[in-house]
Prior knowledge:
299 residues; mainly alpha
Amino acid sequence: MTLPSIPSYKSQALGAIFLVVIGYFGFNIADLLSKILQNHYSIFQVLATSSFLAFSISAVWLKAQHGWKAFFPPNYKAHIIRALFICGVVYSMVASLKLLNLADFYGIIFIMPFLVMILSVIILKEHVGLRRWLAALVAFTGVLIIAGPQFSNIGLGVFLALVGAFFSASNVITLRVIGKKNPVAFYGVYPFALIFIISMTGLIATGSFAPIQTSDIPYFLLHGPAAFFGTTAISVGFTKAPEAAIVAPFNYTQIIWGVLFGWLIFGNLPTMTTWIGLSFVIAAGLYSLWREYKISHHL
């Protein structure tokens, strides 16, 4: 087998890292806008608007490149299941953003890789060594530290963030089962369509529509494209990366923007408890990725 040259490997890795970093930044923007818009609008109105825009971009791109047949792949049932998981991710996480500071929110959802590990053992029957189980225990301890003293005030927000992390992990497992057989544009079509249908149904059923203020129009117009951009850039980045372990740690760049946006826009800075909990979660995550890299390279 011919190995890639060092310059080729390096350029692929740098390109993939760039895509993943800007993709996670897109998610940061979408999270920030979700938190801002929920001050004046219901979750149904926020998600109906953003999902419609994101679906439109995905559908137009997919139709232009691959035609109508690409909307109905042979494994469409698996994609419907994945769409249900993503609906769970979106609704639980957007709802939690209304209740949590951004830093607390990211500290809790960073538990997701360890939930993927647990589901991999249960569903995919993969083997996980003792050290990675201990890393998972450290990460869960970090989440408990973040949620600890203030849990009585933000208990529902913490619970919703954990539910979102679980659905996100379930989405990752589903993606691993599906594989990389579909065009990049397709991965957003079913989820955004389902989110739009559910959101419009909720909006009509609750009668919670509020006239959109002129000053909020840019936020609505940016929300959907930011979510679509984040999803696409991360999907392409992981696909192009020489190894997933190279780009996976850059998930933690979200905390930088989360802290910065929380401070500049909401005047919130992480408490010492949050910093301690974050250090547990991030350190455990990086150690787990390092162990995975060593095992895959027989080091």
